[in-house]
Amino acid sequence: MQRPNRLQKKRVFLFSKHKLLIIISGFVTAFFAMFILVGMFTSIDPNYRVASNTVKKWTNNITEVHFLSLMMMENRIFKEALPEDQTPIDMWKVVFELGTNVRMHDVRSLLGRELPGFEMYDREILIAGEGTDYTNLTVESTPPLDIVLEEREATTPEEKDEEKPVEEQEKTTGDKDVVYIYNTHNRESFLPYLPDADEPDDAFHHEVNITKVSDQLAKDLKRHGIGAEVEDADIGAILNEKGWNYSSDSYRASKDVIEAALTDNKDVNFVFDLHRDSIRKDLTTIEIDGKSYAKIMFVIGGDNPNYEKNYALAEKLHALLDEKYYGLSRGVEMYGGAGRNGVYNQDVSENALTIEVGGVDNTMEELYNTTEVFAEIFSEYYWDAEKVSGSSGEDE
């Protein structure tokens, strides 16, 4: 074998030296580029920074308990730093869920990607109230429009006695209606008042329906000094007139009505769409201090780009309800994705909420008990917010 001569050795050495210089120059350039980029991203106006809602949601859920549980894997002494009311997180369970994408507490994650159409029924629990899990979330009854509009016999529900304004109620919005209440599914009714109906899909009526709950809520709010307007448009009739579908076009029809109302009334700050759930009484009723109430559930439209603001309101109201009437609120769920509306007209206002009040088996007495409590809690929230903003609506 011929040995490389001195000239060949020199060429190899020069080539290696040249390649090494290129590598070093590349590292130095990348190092300085990293510093420049970090400086740019940290000094740029926050309005123009790159952000990820997914990362934000994920990091918002990380607490000191997560960090302490992670450190405890190496040193058990960190357990002493845990708050008394907290228990360590099973990090092996976390690792398993991250590795398999199967959530131990949610059986849907095991088969959800395997069964065709299963994701149509997928949703997220943002706040789980007492007893709420993925097996008892809201159920929307969406029969054909002709079933909704069908004439049915109904008994006259009990009316609530007129009550005097809350004592010592000094604050008031005056002649301003700051709350707008409407019903996208305005014919949703209740089985106790429909003698010929037995199933949730038959619980519809043109008079005895969820609109009575809206009317009562407006009265209860006014007792606390908060003006409220109730929409009287019959969305079912609008759908029939336009030949639209009940399941897919109801929110489309109600949005036209909402936008017209908000154009006419610039004082509206809160928009509530009241519904009746289709699940049964054992899941929609609670007794507190010997009094029976219809439970409520807040529903957030996950396809609304600004849903975080709507969620912030629902979160606060749920917390206030839980503080005084524990278990009355079933929590907050987020609904969205392919095959459904996913916005629920909540894009009209950052203070727009969809609220499920009771279910098909609840009585008006139970529903009215709930509107009274909700008005009380909402008034606390409203007047506290007015105090903070410094724009009290109190009459002079």
Q: Describe it for me?
A:
It holds the Pfam family SpoIIP. This is Stage II sporulation protein P. InterPro entries: Spore_II_P. Residues 153-172 are annotated as: Disordered. Strand 2, helix 7 and strand 3 (227-230) form a beta-alpha-beta unit. The chain has helices at residues 6-43, 53-60, 64-72, 91-100, 108-111, 145-149, 210-223, 235-242, 246-264, 281-284, 307-324, 364-389, and strands spanning 124-128, 177-182, 227-230, 270-275, 285-288, 291-294, 296-301, 329-335, 352-357. The strands form 2 sheets. A 7-stranded mixed β-sheet has the order 1-8-7-9-4-2-3, sandwiched between helices. Strands 5-6 form a two-stranded antiparallel ribbon. The termini are far apart. The protein folds into 3 domains: 6-47; 54-122, no CATH class; 145-389, Zn-dependent exopeptidases (Aminopeptidase, 3-Layer(aba) Sandwich). Residues 392-396 have low confidence and may be disordered. The chain contains 12 helices and 9 strands.
The number of domains: 3
CATH topology of the largest domain: Aminopeptidase
Please identify which CATH superfamily of the largest domain we are dealing with: Zn-dependent exopeptidases
β-strand amount: 5-15%
Rg over CA atoms:
29 Å
Q: How much helix is in the residues?
A: 40-55%
Keywords: Membrane, Transmembrane, Transmembrane helix
Region (Disordered): 153-172
Protein name: Stage II sporulation protein P
Transmembrane segments: 20-41
